[in-house]
Description:
The chain is of the alpha/beta class and 458 residues long. The chain has helices spanning 19-26, 47-57, 74-83, 113-118, 132-143, 164-170, 190-197, 218-241, 251-261, 264-270, 305-315, 318-328, 335-340, 342-354, 358-366, 378-382, 386-390, 432-438, 444-452; strands at 13-16, 64-68, 88-94, 123-127, 151-152, 175-180, 245-250, 288-291, 297-300, 372-374, 395-400, 404-409, 456-457.
Amino acid sequence: MSEHPVLFKGYLIAGCWTRSRAASQLKGVPGKGYGAGARRKGVEVTDSERASNARAAAGPLAGLRIVEVSTYVAAPLGGMTLAQLGAEVIRVDPLGGAPDTRRWPLAPSGTSLYWSGLNKGKRSVVVDFRSERGQDLVAGLVERSGPDGGILLTNAVGRPWLDHESMRRRRPDLISLQVRGHRDGRAAIDYTVNAAVGFPLVTGPREQAGPVNHVLPAFDVACGLYSALGLLAAERTRRATGQGQQVSIALQDVALALAGNLGFLAEAEVNGERRARDGNYLYGAFGRDFTTGDGRHVMVVPLTTRHWRELLEVTGLTGVMAEVEKALGADFSTDDDRFRFREVIAGLLQRWFDDRELVEVERVLGGTSLPWSRYREFADVVGPGRSELLANPMVEEIDQPGVGRHLAPGSPLAFAGSEATVARAPVLGEHTEQVLRDVLALEPAEIAGLRHDGVIEG
Length: 458
């Protein structure tokens, strides 16, 4: 792979930006108004998009500018997390786009649904990373990103022009956050760090012999959220001290941190135990999937004593379970014994589910405080469950170029008094001219020259 070989080659270049200062910076430069409408090859900014962008600009991170050079999951998710909280995020890609611009799943048009999903609310700039002029444009975006700007997130290997020391010579108060695979710079992606810390060997049914990978890139997701947090922490420190920061985060360290913080590693070290696979049972308490009479599946987790009592009441098993407790010398009011005798409990409960179709199970469990859910495919979530999604203020229908109209989530963080908004992802290079004009104060003739020479696209 060329420009961004692996996931951890994704970076954010971020900077703070105060709009009043931005206006004073650009004062007197013709056509340099902040927030000019974006157009690229016929891509029009609609009234609804302008309204959505305006609502985003009023978010809690309004005034923060991030310049992001990234690919795949962790760094793009970190940038989008900040964008959805009101920050202005400029994603810079190499000519033709980074590898993730073509990553599956794809829309019928060939547009990457993956890329569109992880870059919502950003502005897109495309420059030639191989040329000195292109490199200087990227460095300029960091240097000129406002009096409170100059935050760089990068993991570039073999790109000295993007490293902390090179950028700090142009911006002494630089903040850099670098996403790596391993601390020493070796390559790693979610699947490899997952394999390295042990989760695939405790995942899956008991009879499974080999490893089972989970589909969700959990460590990428955590790494992206940690990255956003790291940028905000470094920016807060600089506000207090005036000093920049060099921050790094390794995907392998994220996996180790999660495995350690959740007790998996201590269990092995302190107790000397090898956690065994246990299918869909909840570890340390009682919870499991059950099959209904019509072949559907539900997950039920009576997490508290109240939940346990409710489950026995609605299934009519209170008396039977008391007799079983007595016979076993157990106390099912405790997590310990419910877990220890989970197979006995599950067998009794399964009989109840066997005699009922999903509709009745949903009606009965829906009248309790129990944590439970039927299993759904993604198609069920956006098909039969569409009305439920539309009732959620986090979700809106957006019109994504190359994809069409579809439901998309915004930030799951809900701030009192703030209206949620979901902005679409940009078209690759959609904002190149606008950003070079607004941030670097380039004249139209200069931008035209850069495009003619193949230094920029868009």
